[in-house]
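HOLO CASE FILE
Compound: magnesium ion
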Amino acid sequence: MIDDRLPLVRSALFLPASNARAIEKAQRLAADLVILDLEDAVPAELKEEARVAAVAAAATDWTPLLAIRVNAPDRPEHAKDLAALAGVPADVIVVPKVERADDLAVVRKALGRPLLAMIETPKGLYAARDIAAEPGVVGLIAGSNDLAAELRLPPRQGREGLALALQMILLAARAAGGIALDGVWNRLDDADGFAEDCAQGRALGFEAKTLIHPNQIETCNRLFGPDTAELEDAQALIAAATGGAERFRGRMIEAMHVAQAHRTIARAR
Ligand SMILES: CC(C)(COP(=O)(O)OP(=O)(O)OC[C@H]1O[C@@H](n2cnc3c(N)ncnc32)[C@H](O)[C@@H]1OP(=O)(O)O)[C@@H](O)C(=O)NCCC(=O)NCCSC(=O)C[C@H](O)C(=O)O
Ligand SMILES: [Mg+2]
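Model generated. Tokens follow.
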């Protein structure tokens, strides 16, 4: 069962499930989705502790939607995660480094929750269309750190080298009718760079961005939600539209623009 709030998500905050303080804090934060990580944020010696903490956290009340990221399908920890999470009431399960749609069928059968698949490797990119179309998958997440490493991009550059990958992820998600979440911004002290990254992600079509720190939530929610002018324009467009091609505020509008305006209004909070 897919939560109605999922297509409206703007911000998705990762945190290591081994960090009890961060879990406690995240329950009260304004992120639309919180992702308790069992994968790369958790050192090997804390994997079991993180699983136990994630299961306990999922049994409590959350204001944001709650997701748990399991370890990658090709890792020995993956099967342990699936066993530990059986019956867990998380809203979503995030599966990293997906390269084959079949890997997701295994997770869906084991956990029966909606799935967000992370595309983080060249093989994953080429399989993204099948991955997004796999039953149970509600969308894709760009794993931009792993992608940059796999593509051997030079460190500390802009996102030019990721442009095609990001667009392939968005296209695959949309072809399957799913949502698409942009990758994280690592430079915690560069707020201007983060805002530019959010604006770029939204311009590419992503409806949300994955985050790593509470300080990123407010900017992300603001930049991925419609602003006042967009909202006013959408409302006026719907009120003015009578069907077919017509002139509205100096531009042509048709049925798809009315549908877009309804989506804008649905995303306004
Ligand atoms: C990146 C961090 C390790 C930085 O930690 P730190 O310097 O200790 O943070 P602060 O001192 O600034 O923290 C201030 C308070 O905020 C809480 N906090 C910090 N981060 C989070 C969070 N993510 N969620 C909830 N709360 C958080 C601290 O506990 C402090 O609270 P208080 O005690 O009240 O002062 C750290 O931010 C962090 O661990 N971030 C998440 C890292 C993570 O989950 N990584 C995995 C996903 S990223 C990724 O790999 C994506 C993808 O796979 C790819 O390939 O790109
Ligand atoms: Mg990754």
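CASE NOTES: The chain has a mean pLDDT of 97. The chain has two domains: 6-225, 229-267.
CLOSED: yes
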